[in-house]
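Protocol check, entry for the methods section draft. Step 1: assemble the input record (protein sequence plus ligand SMILES). Step 2: submit for complex structure prediction. Step 3: store the structure tokens unaltered in the notebook. Ligand used here: flavin mononucleotide. Step 1 record:
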Amino acid sequence: MNGLFDAKTAIENRRSVRSFKSDPIEGEAMAELSKFIKTFPFPFQHNTEIKFFKSQPTKELYYTIRAPEDNMAFISDLDPISLGKTGFIGELSVLKATSLGLSTCWIGTFKKSELLSVSPEALVGVDNPGISDPSVMSRATVCCCPVGYFEEKGLRFYDRLVKTVFSLNRKVLSELLEEPSAEPKIPQDIMFALDMGMRSPSAVNMQPWRFSFDDNFESILIGLPGDFKPFKWAYPNIDIGICASHVYCALLSLDYAPKVEVFTKNNGVVFRIFPGKKVMKRVFKRKLLRRPIKEINKGKTVATSSANRLGYNDLRGALRTVIALYPTTNPVKFGVGIALRTATALCTKIDPKNKGVIGVVRTAALVYSKLDTKQRGFNKLLTTAKTLIPVFRP
Ligand SMILES: Cc1cc2nc3c(=O)[nH]c(=O)nc-3n(C[C@H](O)[C@H](O)[C@H](O)COP(=O)(O)O)c2cc1C
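Step 3, stored output:
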């Protein structure tokens, strides 16, 4: 799949970050994120636009958050289906950014006059006399999203409050099922996809999504609760799309090829996701895995857990390792071409003699073995990961 990231890791690592360094996004990461947004085969037609724009390092645009240099504006038609699709597309972009070591935060309350002054083309809607047509209030910039590097020192009381009081709180599954009695019967893979869905961000952490299923769990329906009172604001429909995107990419990560239908019920958007059957693994993948499967699997676990433990910032080096080496184990998910190109380029940087698939596999095993669990302890892992950073720096 075109540029897809490791869904579980990205979903588990994503947090709404409200403290950014003022640095711009590195060129390589920016190129990869833009390419993903342009080329990812979203599973429906849409007219959502994502515009990147530069901002001043002040609190003018996001009130409590000092804006980083790079930001995205999510521009959408305002009917429930379009808003849901914008949530879906915006969140896949957020997860892709996370997989590249970047921090993000969906922002619904941005100052339109400031956006107009820093980037008039990013502001669509009645507040922009250049772009809007007040007689047709059907399209607008519904949210913005700062994208940059986490600044730990910048955490203030508000950030800590939001992080501990709202950010990690999630409803339990039984509260989110239209029919709680279905819970014990939910198949394992669908349970995993729902768990990934429940980790979605939502405006004021409302988690308005509710799950239901049709017979035999052939499809998962994600919509607003039956007694939901329609708000004037756009966010509940955006939230539903965000949650659907998590469920969708969780299923992709399990090798399903899900189909998606989007429709409305009681004026709210509903996503119906058909997991379908798991796609056959390609012979190529089996061939590639046959060689050092033990080392690669062990290394993958160690690299992932060390990445998680290293924290968001120092993680960049370890993440590069993981991102770079995942393709050698998951060519089906990443696309064989992209996987090989990325992995080969990185492996020849380590040793020019490392060529082709065998070279990639050998290098993967070698690098993973450097992140061996025998070197227990956080500090040793950190040191090892840091020694690897220069290898993966462009
Ligand atoms: C559509 C949408 C709008 C949001 N608007 C804001 C906002 O204006 N300001 C803010 O600080 N956080 C905003 N958030 C972030 C939520 O507060 C956050 O997702 C939620 O508290 C869960 O925390 P987490 O994202 O760290 O898991 C928004 C999230 C979504 C999905």
